[in-house]
Design goal:
single chain, Alpha-Beta Plaits, 5 domains
Length: 707
């Protein structure tokens, strides 16, 4: 059996378990740790270890085994948690992630990295309390490439050795039903790692009964066994329930002993799956696999791999993993279906409704069904913002300690959903904003106390839906932006800005390329090479950035994005004989201008006076060289839009309507066109261009600045 077919399932499952492990560790109260959190972290490490041993990922197996031993002692109150220990656990999680990445790419992890983290975990295992902790973790010398990973450790206890006294040992009867012979063997081996097997009985060909003397909770036994069978196949009773236990002096029934790694040459990859997860001791284990053996894999390898597949399938009974390209293909086909339906509806609009009543009724049903199908398919690509927010507790913990600050993270709207293609692209911009808030925004505890604030700063990440958009905010309660400092820096860099400019316009200056008011350059932020990238990335996703700040109170950076890049709520406008689409999230209002509100600033450019504000007038027919357009503004319509914190007016011939359009990439099918972001197909089959409002605003601003 080719077990490599299960690699991807294992890697994805391990990624999820590592993510859960990190979140649980970050939420632990070191003084009074929650037992459920410790048990969950332990189960995650145990599951990863079992899968890694099955597939012969030796370095990953050894690291998780050492981590699991420490976690087991911690959850049974034999090891007192402290800050250094937590740092080591989080560092181990990072190393495990790197090991997974190496195995995923078909390589072996760095031996020196594995040796170092194993040495750190071994040291922690020898400490009982914080007073006994060493001053600093000992870093082992890097091993040669062909050497084995070795760490000094006591000899492993036999698999059937009694569990440590003082843990509250109980005798439990564990009954497994509807299990194959191979699975029975695996289950017996797993139970032998959890305590002493007193007896083992096969009640029928598909049932196994095991009496176990253990300090583990029944929930832990179920969690470990669920790696092989389903929860409804497990029944646990105890002596307290009235079940007759075997005599304590009885000889334990023969249980297949797990195979420990022998000293000597490395274990071949083909034989590696036979190593049972719980039997691996932190002794000499090879990192680099030897050449594959010519002999076929043992039968146990196939059954172990099948057990992993069963476990993964059991955990995902309510979901399936589908390649994103397949989902994108479905979305594209549904988009084509919507376009075809729109064409049919437009053609049928010329028919007599009396003579063709049934046809028109059917088209109405088709339109509703197509819209429902479109919304259902789009929801498949939606992911909760928790996917983004969950990675920041660790970042904030590490950075705040590095900067000597106390910061509390608050997240709001983690369940708010966003398109997968956008949610992955938004991670880097938000990360940069968070780092800036920690470095420049939130003050040190001493500065906050002098300002009459709580010494612990607060950083809030929030997400919420507003219409067809999602609004993401990064908000801190720090010192806020210094207006005069920003203006002085702008003049120094030659940027054109008035002293009377609105605050929002001044705040946008911090997103100019190379702009930074930081007095000290750090490795966290302060070089002025990030905020302009944040702004550009957001604009490429069809969104915009707004900034508000109050000196001494804090700063809020607001990102507005469309929910998806595949569907767009737009307003269609006509210019000459052409139809253009304006993204609705940029549109504020539309009106017909009067001559008294139009003012010329030179021979070609005009501004429109609207309620005390002068707006630049951009004539679309001139921008895109459209013939036969309405040239007199008072006979046309202006649409007031807002982009990049500035409002301006677009001159069009007339408004056509408001509707959803299926976005088509213009560069893939044609080429990049200035001022155009994408295209769509209208109901009559014609192509309409979607205007890039932010690009139009930038072009107009640069033109005015040149005068």
């Amino acid at each position: 059996m080719d077990i490599t077919q299960f690699y991807q399932a294992f890697f994805e499952e391990a990624d999820e378990l590592l993510s859960e492990m990190e979140q649980r560790l970050l939420g632990l109260n070191l003084q009074q740790p929650d037992s459920e959190d410790l048990n969950a972290v332990f189960r995650a490490a145990h599951s990863i270890k079992g899968g890694a041993a099955t597939f012969g990922f030796i370095a990953l197996t050894e690291t998780t085994h050492l981590l699991e031993n420490l976690l087991d002692r911690a959850r049974h109150n034999e090891l007192k948690l402290n800050t250094r220990m937590m740092d080591a656990f989080l560092e181990t999680k990072d190393v495990l992630q790197q090991q997974l990445s190496a195995y995923r790419s078909g390589a072996e992890p760095d031996p020196a990295m594995v040796t170092r983290i194993c040495a750190v975990l071994q040291q922690l295992a020898q400490q009982d309390n914080e007073d006994a902790m060493p001053a600093a973790p000992v870093t082992a010398a890097p091993a040669p490439a062909a050497a084995h990973v070795s760490a000094p450790a006591p000899a492993p206890a036999p698999a059937s050795a009694p569990v440590t006294a003082g843990k509250g040992i109980a005798r439990l009867k564990v009954l497994f039903t509807k299990v194959s012979a191979n699975d029975q063997k695996l289950l017996a081996e797993e139970l032998a790692n959890l305590g002493t097997v007193l007896s083992q009985t096969q009640e029928d060909a598909a049932s196994l009964s095991v009496w176990l003397e253990t300090a583990c909770d029944p929930d832990d036994i179920v969690a470990v066994s669920c790696f092989i069978v389903e929860a409804d196949q497990i029944k646990i009773t105890s002596e307290a329930d009235g079940a007759p236990a075997p005599a304590s002096e009885a000889e334990p029934a023969p249980v297949p002993a797990p195979i420990a790694a022998p000293p000597g040459p490395p274990v071949p990859r083909a034989a590696a799956p036979a190593l049972e997860a719980g039997a691996l001791a932190p002794s000499v284990l090879p990192v680099a696999a030897a050449a594959p053996s010519a002999a076929p894999p043992a039968a146990g390898a196939a059954s172990a791999a099948a057990a992993v597949a069963v476990a993964v399938a059991g955990k995902e009974s309510n979901s399936i993993r589908v390649d994103v390209e397949k989902v994108d293909q479905i979305i594209n086909l549904v988009g084509e279906l919507v376009i075809t339906q729109s064409m049919l509806t437009q053609t049928a609009s010329t028919l007599d409704p009396v003579l063709h009543e049934r046809l028109l009724s059917g088209l109405g049903h088709l339109e509703r069904n197509a819209r429902d199908l479109q919304e259902s398919v789009m929801s498949i690509r939606m992911m909760p913002m928790d996917y983004v927010f969950s990675r920041f507790p660790r970042l904030i913990r590490d950075l705040s300690a590095k900067l000597g600050k106390q910061v509390q993270l608050v997240t709001v709207g983690k369940e708010t959903e966003l398109d997968k293609s956008l949610i992955e692209r938004i991670i880097d911009p938000i990360t940069h904003l968070v780092r800036n808030s920690l470095d420049h925004g939130i003050e040190t505890p001493e500065q906050r106390v002098r300002a009459g604030k709580d010494p612990e700063g607060r950083l809030t990440l929030s997400a919420q839906h507003q219409g067809g958009s999602i609004v993401i905010e990064v908000r801190d309660d720090g010192g806020g932006l210094a207006r005069e400092k920003i203006l002085a820096k702008a003049r120094q860099q030659g940027l054109v800005v008035s002293d009377n400019a609105a605050d929002e316009e001044v705040w946008q200056l911090i997103m100019a390329p190379g702009f930074s008011t930081a007095e000290v350059i750090t490795d966290v932020s302060g070089r002025g090479v990030g905020m302009d990238v944040v702004k550009r990335n957001i604009h490429e996703m069809g969104g915009h950035v707004g900034i508000s700040s109050v000196h001494g109170k804090g700063t809020t950076i607001r990102i507005v994005l469309p929910l998806t890049l595949a569907i767009l709520n737009g307003m269609s406008v006509k210019v000459g004989g052409e139809i253009y689409i304006l993204p609705l999230n940029y549109v504020i209002e539309s009106l017909q201008p009067e001559a008294r509100n139009l003012h010329a600033i030179n021979a070609d450019e005009q501004v429109l006076h609207v309620r005390g504000e002068y707006l630049a007038l951009v004539k679309l027919h001139r921008l895109f060289t459209v013939p036969d357009a309405v040239l007199e503004p008072t006979q046309a319509i202006v649409v007031i839009v807002q982009a990049e914190g500035a409002r301006f007016a677009l001159l069009v011939d007339q408004l056509v309507g408001q509707h959803q359009v299926v976005v088509k990439n213009l560069e893939t099918n044609y080429r990049k066109v200035p001022g155009i972001s994408a295209a769509t197909i209208l109901g009559d089959g014609n192509v309409a261009l979607i205007i890039d409002v932010a690009a139009v605003q930038r072009n107009n601003r640069d033109k005015l600045a040149s005068y």
